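Page 47, continued from p. 46.
Same chain as before, 99 aa.
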Amino acid sequence: MAERAGGEGEEFSFFDGSGLTRLALVSPQAVMKVLQAMAAGPSREAWWNSLPVGGEDGTLSRRFKGWKGGVVRAKTGTLSHVTGLSGYVEAADGRTIAF
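Result:
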């Protein structure tokens, strides 16, 4: 998907397909390209509905409780003592911002 979204080979390295190894690497640029492509693509609705909502469900059920900003839809990624978060937030002006 990263290549179809415009990612370059040096922006990611998949080692064994599980995503559970430190040898699997994805640059922030590649993540943003995938997020933008999915938000604009034909599977947008299915993709959007698959993401946990901050403060409500999935891996975000305990995050963003009491958050006064827009709705957050994102996925977490975790390695020992490190957590990443990528997804979308709805801005006050109605725009959807990928992060």
